[in-house]
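Work package 3, deliverable 3.1, input record:
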Amino acid sequence: EVQLVESGGGLVKPGGSLRLSCAVSGFTSSNAWMSWVRQAPGKGLEWVGRIKSKTDGGTTEYAAPMQGRFTISRDDSKNTLYLQMNSLKTEDTAVYYCTALPNWGQGTLVTVSS
Amino acid sequence: EIVLTQSPGTLSLSPGERATLSCRASQSVSSSFLAWYQQKPGQAPRLLIYGASSRATGIPDRFSGSGSGTDFTLTISRLEPEDFAVYYCQQYGSSPFTFGPGTTVDIK
């Protein structure tokens, strides 16, 4: 069974940092292009960014509000995807999902508040 | 950035009725890289349709997608009780891979 399990969410102050992890099981994640998507409370879905597989270059792309503050990386030896978030703002408060289509994790809540 | 607009914002229908949801893009979506998702409260989104018209594994055939260029449609032929949810379209042909604002299908 394919599973994506996010972790690392929590409460952080504005300006702080947080690293989310997404542990993948049930398939070979090294071949997958993987993404992060977020959803603010009561709002719609927002694409955060994507990382290609290493065989396809391993390059990353980000939505404009995250560019320069967020970094997506992967450790295929651990079947894990990461999202490093720096300079967090209150508007970054959201549930963060990792995806490797068609599969999605259940999300982890990040709250940015003083 | 490609902006997606979904209409209507809310669709109030009864079980057994047909639902037609629209997704319009501000510019052409390359290679019909358009997906539809269903999301229920407290759950992660579920992929329904990819490539504008291909059903994802395990998706019932009452769900169908069509369209190309800038105009796309998700049709649910006969609504089942479990279909009342929020539906999002997403284009993944041009970065950033934007989502539409969603259409809520609720029970009339």
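Chain B is about 0% helix and 45% strand.
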